[in-house]
Structures
1.
Amino acid sequence: MELGDLLRPLLRGWTIPLLLFTVGYTLVYLPQIEKELDEGCSLLPDTHFVLYSKRVVTTQGIGPYSVEVEGERIVSVTKRSEAPKSLPGKPRVLDYGNAVIMPGLIDTHVHLNEPGRVEWEGFLTGTMAAAAGGITAVVDMPLNSRPTITTKEHLENKIKASKGKIFIDVGFWGGLVPEYAHNATVLEDLLDAGALGLKSFMCPSGINDFPATTAKDIQASLPVLAKYGRPILVHQEVVDPPADPAHLMQGEPVSNARSYQRYLNSRPISWETEAVRQLMEVAKDTRSGGVADGAHVHVVHLSDATNTLSIIKEAKAEGSSVTVETCAHYLAFAAEDIPEGATQYKCAPPIRDSRNRELLWKALLDGEIDMITSDHSPSTIDLKLLEEGDFLKAWGGISGIQFSLPATWTHGSARGMSIEQMSNWWSAAPAKLANLPRKGTLEFGKDADIVVWDPEASFVIDGHYPIYFKNKVTAYMGHKYSGKVITTFVRGRQVFEEGLHSPKINILLV
Ligand SMILES: NC(=O)N[C@H]1NC(=O)NC1=O
Ligand SMILES: [Zn+2]
Ligand SMILES: [Zn+2]
């Protein structure tokens, strides 16, 4: 007798129950499993919990508060001198004592380079590093992925490439290049597909399929951006006076290319000042009643705190809709301290002298610079030419997303910066730039995007330090910082806690 013959009479009576079970399983149980999988995206099993510490950064000031999280949102922020008790039937209380509970950082200037250059970085490693650094959302730049994100199709392709690979919220800037700058349909399609705004370069970007735009090209995009109430972010250098050919990573070998001063001379302050002068001319269109009223111009990675900043201040005072960021590395490092051949410090515009660094800090503290980003722009290690130490030919870009918080805190607290100021530059202001109204502060109804960190804990980034971004060459290596991230929550999911990451969460801001 075959096995089937044996089972047949047994199954006969079971046919209907089996059928019912299958249908029930598919309709009721499978969705439940999906939900549990999503819940498994957190290191914490709870979906309703309370965070407490003596130093919570709220819109009412910093102090002892409890922050209640339910699902993805903050459902209450309450002042109280003691941690609430964990009682049966009540949400679990996580008491972080004297640590700081703060809105997660939002880094609006990050190059994740996927698809197309995953050997440089990627969604997985880049967002793991961000989560470990207390960053709960990044906005990815349209370069250096391949293709660059200049059309709707390219953006859709990038969104697809991110599926199942991200630990935090990720949004996207679209790219503005001369080919489409005057084509409103292409730009509108890109914005409709979810781009949070546009980004362009006023000088060669180092990536061939992302050519430079002129101020006129940028001006042409502004009425489209006005219609959507979105910003254009601009890399503010123009090759003026005409090039020292060395800066373009081509040309003949140049003597003393290992000297940082040599590199600094190749990209003078005048490049930055002239670009911003041209840009602030076209930004006049954003003024109230102007042809691009509703659009916004954002200057990325300000490195010069002298003439360039003065022009930006003037444009703001005259009513143009303008903001400016600087990067953690301009606030942490100074040209005089960069060793010969140390190309891990190469970026553009370059890190300038310590006098300028102090002026950048003063401008932040005086409210003249609006926010800070990482401009995390990695490449493979070989492109950094660490052995030759050739500053003129090495890839220009600093990897450091994981260290933004400790670097800002260490250098800022030494200059009188408060935790609330830091939170404003790293969370509230970038949320506004990227138009993310549910993010940036700890308030009722907002996304539960939270970092808990210890300002007093210090550490050295050495060869043993766990670095999560892909290519572990960084300007921050060898330096000592205070400000250790304890844990990071993204929309109520605990995605990082002291060396451990949750499974990926896969949420996009588009
Ligand atoms: N292409 C690219 O990422 N360039 C960036 N690197 C850098 O240091 N400045 C930049 O604009
Ligand atoms: Zn740039
Ligand atoms: Zn950049």
2.
Amino acid sequence: MQKETAKDGGARTPVLSVKDVSYWYGAKQALDDVSFDVYSGKVTALLGPNGAGKTTLFSLITRLFDAPTGRIEIDGRSAADWGFKALGPLGVVFQQPTLDLDLTVKQNLRYFASLRGLKRKEADERMDRALTALDMKERIGERVRSLNGGHRRRVEIARALLHSPKLLLLDEPTIGLDDPTRAAIVRHIHELARTDNIGVLWATHLFDEIEADDDLVVLSKGRIVARGEAKAVVADTGAKDLGEAFRRLIGGDAEEDVAI
Ligand SMILES: Nc1ncnc2c1ncn2[C@@H]1O[C@H](COP(=O)(O)OP(=O)(O)OP(=O)(O)O)[C@@H](O)[C@H]1O
């Protein structure tokens, strides 16, 4: 597994390591030799326009598909060697919501906790903690149907945190939300990464969701075109901000829906 030297001189081990991964849908290549790492306590933003390959990458990490080439390790374990056990340290929020609208927040979370094998007392404690971190504790008894989009998203994130994952995958979790709600979720996730030492991989096409200290992976047409701390990527391109850096990096692949 690749290691990286931290600023204090110590080696840090990635909680997610993606190495030389390629993927084809028939003759169409969606990912081309993709390699990067995600570290504990940090948000890694996966930035790319529509069609760059972000969802395909998430499908490979979560084992919805098998990677025909390369290796993916979560907390040092590859699913190729460990099967679905390798996914234990993983929490996921997919693009499409998957809550049961007719159940309350509590019922949804309890159901998920039981699938994860958590005992009732432990599940309730963790539920409490995750909902508090996301400012949703007061809504625990409400039916999900009565919540707005932003609050439903927070419940999904709380659910993904119940089993104390070391790695959290978020596939464009703020899609369809208004700006203040987006900003609140971005802030919560960055705080969670720091306080709970979780490695976060955040797929997005919105520059304002990325902080200067975040790690950044820029994906274009299935290939990584830049990788490093966001501020270093901006400095390396000589751009004035991330938006300009991104346009320079992806050139003709820039699309209008990639927003500053
Ligand atoms: N089931 C499929 N069959 C064929 N091609 C596909 C399939 N799914 C995705 N692709 C293609 O693979 C490439 C990567 O798609 P992917 O959905 O991973 O990108 P993305 O960055 O997640 O985009 P979006 O933000 O729109 O979800 C695109 O060119 C897409 O058209």
